[in-house]
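Folding Task

Wanted — backbone structure
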Amino acid sequence: MLERIEEMPASFELRAALKLQAFTGHRSDRIMAAEWRHFHAPRKPGEPWRWITPRELMKIKRNKIKWDHVLVLPAPVVKLLESLPSFEHRAKGGWLFPSERSASGHITNLDGPMRELLGKGIHVPQRVAQCHQNSRVESDHEARQRVVAADVQ
């Protein structure tokens, strides 16, 4: 899938957003509206980068979730983040994938390009599909982390 994304006639930012979605299994709206303030660099050597989505931003009913969603980011995702034009300004906050043409200030359409990719006969492994389903349930968080890490390797 990553090879097909790279071959797409799309902007660097759109391809990067699709890769981030492929790596993490996050919903399109979370990828498009991802903010640097939710990405946490390691405080000590050996600690991983983390993407923390506050429970207030999740689609699931807030009274069903007691914790924020924490996703440990593997090295390929960190490398992808570091390649983004917005990376050098991350301390100021803002969107990972800003867009001057959008009223929201960030890119607004990942579903169309993702459907286009999937329509080209890309096989989505069952564990990736299961990973996306589990992203809705906080208790499956650890299982989801293992699935994402296994897919990256």
In short: Residues 36 and 93 are 5 Å apart (CA to CA). Confidence is low (pLDDT under 50) at residues 122-140. The longest helix spans residues 12-24.
